[in-house]
Amino acid sequence: MSEQERFDRLRLIRSPRIGPVTFRQLLARFGSAGEALRAVPDLAARGGGRAVLAEAAVVEREIAASRALGARYLLMGDTDYPFLLDQLEGAPPALIVRGDVALPARPCVAMVGARNASAAAIRFARGLAQDLGQRGAVVVSGLARGIDTAAHQGSLDTGTIAVIASGFDIAFPPENATLQAEVAERGLLVTEHPPGVQPLARHFPARNRIIAGLAAGTVVVEAAPKSGSLITARIAAEAGREVMAVPGSPIDPRAQGCNLLIREGATLVQNAADVMEALGAIDDRMVRQGRQDFNAPPMGSDVAEQERAAVIALLGPVAVPVDEIIRLSALSPAVVQTVLLELELAGRLERQAGGRVSLG
Question: Which residues are in the Smf/DprA SLOG domain (predicted)?
C-alpha cells in the first residue's frame, strides 16, 4: 500500500458520515481511497445532501501528533492488522497502536468485568490472567478500574493488550496512567481515536467491540446484568467467538450478569485450564489474512430515480434490516446498497447494530 493510499484511507475514515461499513463499501466499489474521496461528493448529492470530507491538513496534524507519542497506524489491509478483528462486522479501518504488534497473532483471550469489583474477584482475575499467560495466551482488556486493571496487571509479563476509548495522550481512569504507559512499553496499547479525543460515554461500546474482536473468546469475571461487560460478551457471541463466565454468589448483584450468561449458554469456567479447553483450536475459516474485498456487498453504478424513491419509501425513523428492504423493494442488493450509501453520505441515513438502518 503506497503512502498516499494510506493517507487517503485515513482521511476517508476520518470524514463525517463514513463509518466502517461505508468505508468497506467505498473501497470495494472504487478500488482505492483516492478514487472514493473523489466520488463521495457526487454520491452525497444523489442522496439529497452535501458531502463533508476531512481536511487533509487535519489528518496531517493527527499523524504528526500520533508519531510524537511514539504510535503508529495499522490500517485494514495491512498484513499486520489483527486477523481476528478483521473478521468482525464494523471493525475499525484504522487503529493507532503502541507496543508489540505481533501480540494479536498469538491466541488471545478477552477478560472483562465490573469496575466496582469485589476484592475476591479482583484477586481471581489477576491470578487467572497470570495463569493464562503462562499457558501462552495474550490477555485483552479495556484498562478500566476493577477487573480490567487486574487482568492487565496479571498478564503484563506474558503479553497483554489494552484497548482504550480515548487518544493515547489521555489516561482514563487517571490512576491507571502508569499502567497504561507500562502496557505501551511491554504489551500493546490500542485505540481507534486520534490524540486529544476524550473518553466519552459513546466511545466505550465501540471500544468493547475491539476487545471482543481481537480475541478468540471472552471471559466475564464479575458483572451486573446491564453492564458494558455483557455488551462485550454479546458482541463476541454474535461474532461466533466463545463466551465464558465465572459463576458467583446469587446474592451478590455483581455476579448476576455472569450467572445470567451461564444460564443462557455461556461456558462456566473456574480456572485457566477451563478457558483454554473451551477455546480449543481457532477455526481456520475465521482466519482470512490479507483480505482485499472488505466483505462489502455488491454495489450498482446507476440507480433509476424510481428505484431510489422505492427504497426511501421503505425507510423511516424505526431501524429495519437491510435484507428486509431488499425483499420488500424487489430490487437487487446492488441497487439497494447504493441508495443506502448515497443517503448515508448525504447525512440522511443512520446505521444501527445488526445490519439495520433508519432515516436520520
Answer: 73-279
Query: How far apart (Å, rounded) are the C-alpha atoms in residues 307 and 304?
Result: 5
256 and 225 Cβ atoms separated by less than 8 Å: yes
Task: Flag whether the pTM goes above 0.85.
Answer: yes
Give me the pLDDT at residue 89, please: 82
pLDDT tens sequence across 245-257: 999 988 888 899 9
What does the pLDDT look like over 214-232, one tens digit per residue? 999 999 999 988 888 999 9
Contact by Cβ (8 Å): 306, 348: no
More confident residue, 25 or 299: 25
CA distance 111 to 154: 11
| Domains of the chain with bracketed CATH | 3-54+297-359 (1.10.10.10), 98-285 (3.40.50.450)
DSSP line for 218-278: EEE-S--TTSHHHHHHHHHHHTT-EEEE----TT-GGGHHHHHHHHTTPEE--SHHHHHHH
Give me the residues paired with residue 356 across strands.
321, 352
